[in-house]
Design goal:
32 helices; single chain; about 0% strand
């Protein structure tokens, strides 16, 4: 009988202990829930209860520390840790206690505690933990000293490069910083990370010069180190030394056995960045190798595209220059007829006939030829969009609609961006021709696809229509004005916008007309007229929602007239009156440029 009673007692005690344990588990889960939900006060209360009941469980203590720290209750935490450290001792705990001493103003004691922590527990993780703690306290030099000491004590001279490079960036020490970044690159081979950290050190001309000498020296010593050469090539490109970068890319091409691939990559990057002269030189390097080089067609195309971009940036373009570029594209087509580059060349020729030679008939012929010859190619989709644009420009809405419907029916998957452009043009056809309700339905479909480039354009159209739906006749005339602007009939568009503005004075549509009229005057180079129109609009409605855009255009117009004083005043108005404007950053940059020019 006594034996049964004893067994019963044991079972009862075990059940009680299990229930207590389950209760603690539930309480810890609740504490974590409070913590994750952003309620550190209740989380800390529960962790404190758990910790007081069982001071041996590390998760309770760590939870208490996290939440007290998040509430900046360092004094309360100090008392808990000070008592806890008498019974439990570790490097992590001593580092924490030293942190709390520092926050309390006991700086000497903190340094002493940290010294004891590393003397008694000299592990790699503790050196990193202490350095991170010191860094959080803005003690960057102390953190650097800790890691350098760790290298010596643990005899790991190339360790902590990741942590040290970040600390040298924080302190602006570019000399030691670049050394650590090179060590880190040798360990993890992460070029992108090395580039980012080198860029962070480039805070002054002096820093850039030092980094340049350092990288050039290392690259010279390690000519076969691919990572070092890639880092140097990036640095030279970033700092505008394209000729030197080209030489490094030639070296890279040999190291990688690229047979021109790296040179072509450099040429394309240079073209995209606007360094046209060096891009042409790099393309020529490949072209000179003739058909034996597999990248020659791409280089020929890149060369022609570069010439085209140079001409596009030049306000005076001769017909002869355009024809020379077309001749280069035609050479690609004749010599490499089955290449993708030939297809791209055909598209570029059509574009040039339309945009620069004012020859829409030839452009139409070439676009149709491309679509017929390469029916499934994505460039055929782009050609369809351009073709529809020409038809629309010629008021051939029927052909434009037919072309766009063919686009939508055949390229839904293979050319989604062009399909979205096509849908937008279909909506524009309705809008321009007065079918406002039909246009609205199509625009609303387009704005559902927020990742689409045309969604914002569709939203702008809907805003015009929605805000001015009471002006039935003027809104139709406004749409017609937009169509004339689309056709680049600036004179006709200006006159019609002006007529609509007279009918709608004091309304949103009036202000939109004024903005469009100023845009036209700016485009044709009549900057004084653009300024006058916008100032009239602002004078009639100082609170216009287009004020920031108006001042931006006014400022740019004054710059075109070389009136920097008035330009700066206009850009300053944006900073003063429209702090949330999308033009804020551009206004700041314009002001900075004006002031730098005057120095």
């Amino acid at each position: 009988m006594k034996h049964l009673a004893f067994v019963f007692l044991l079972v009862l005690l075990a059940a009680t202990a299990l229930n207590s344990q389950n209760a603690d588990v539930r309480k810890e889960r609740l504490a974590k829930s409070y913590e994750q939900g952003g309620d550190p006060e209740n989380a800390a209360r529960l962790y404190l209860e758990l910790f007081n009941a069982n001071k041996k469980k590390a998760s309770y203590f760590r939870g208490l520390v996290r939440n007290y720290k998040s509430m900046h209750r360092y004094s309360d935490l100090f008392e808990i840790v000070e008592e806890y450290i008498t019974t439990s001792r570790s490097g992590e705990l001593l580092i924490l206690f030293g942190e709390l001493q520092w926050r309390k103003g006991e700086y000497r004691k903190a340094k002493n505690t940290w010294g004891i922590a590393l003397d008694e527990f000299p592990s790699r993780s503790n050196f990193i933990l202490l350095a991170q703690t010191q860094s959080n306290l803005q003690l960057f030099q102390e953190a650097i000293n800790t890691l350098e000491s760790g290298r010596e004590i643990l005899n790991i001279p190339a360790d902590f490069a990741d942590e040290l490079s970040k600390l040298y960036i924080a302190t602006g020490d570019y000399e030691n910083g670049v050394d650590e970044i090179i060590i880190l690159l040798g360990k993890n081979r992460n070029i992108a990370l090395a580039q980012g950290r080198i860029y962070a050190l480039m805070t002054s001309r002096k820093a850039i010069n030092y980094i340049s000498k350092s990288l050039m020296k290392i690259a010279g010593e390690q000519e076969n180190n691919l990572n070092i050469q890639q880092l140097l090539a990036w640095f030279l490109r970033t700092t505008g030394r394209q000729d030197q970068a080209f030489e490094v890319y030639l070296r890279l091409d040999k190291l990688k056995n690229g047979r021109g691939r790296e040179v072509l990559n450099f040429a394309n990057l240079s073209r995209n960045d606007g360094f046209f002269d060096i891009a042409l030189k790099a393309y020529e390097f490949i072209i000179d190798q003739g058909k034996s080089n597999r990248y020659t067609p791409s280089a020929l195309y890149g060369y022609a595209r570069t010439l085209e971009q140079i001409i596009r940036d030049n306000s005076t373009i001769s017909r002869q220059q355009i024809l020379q570029i077309i001749d280069r594209y035609e050479k690609i087509i004749s010599e490499y007829p089955k290449s993708n580059t030939a297809t791209e060349a055909m598209f570029r020729i059509a574009d040039l006939h339309w945009e620069f030679l004012d020859d829409p008939d030839m452009a139409v012929e070439l676009y149709l030829k491309l679509i017929k010859k390469f029916p499934g190619h994505r460039l055929s989709a782009k050609a369809s969009v351009s073709l529809a644009g020409i038809y629309l420009n010629n008021e051939d809405f029927k052909s434009a609609t037919k072309t766009l419907k063919h686009l939508l029916g055949n390229f839904q998957r293979s050319a989604p961006e062009e399909v979205e452009e096509g849908k937008f043009l279909l909506a524009e056809i309705q809008y321009f021709s007065g079918g406002i309700d039909s246009a609205v339905a199509l625009y609303r479909i387009l704005i559902k696809n927020k990742s689409s480039d045309v969604a914002n354009d569709a939203l702008k159209r809907l805003a015009v229509i929605e805000q001015n739906k009471n002006f039935i006749s003027p809104l139709g005339e406004f749409a017609r004005s937009e169509y004339l602007l689309f056709k680049r009939d600036y004179s006709g568009a200006f006159k019609q916008f002006e007529d609509v503005s007279k009918q709608t004075e004091g309304s949103d549509l009036y202000e939109r007309c004024m903005m469009k009229m100023s845009e036209i005057k700016f485009t044709i180079g009549d900057y004084s007229a653009a300024i006058k129109i916008l100032r009239e609009m602002i004078e009639k409605n100082p609170d216009t929602i287009y004020g920031d855009s108006a001042f931006m255009t006014i400022g740019k117009a004054f710059l075109m007239e070389n009136n920097k004083i008035e330009a700066e005043k206009s850009f300053t108005q944006i900073l003063m009156k429209y702090p949330k404007s999308i033009h804020i950053q551009e206004a700041r940059e314009k002001i900075r440029a004006i002031r730098n020019d005057d120095i």
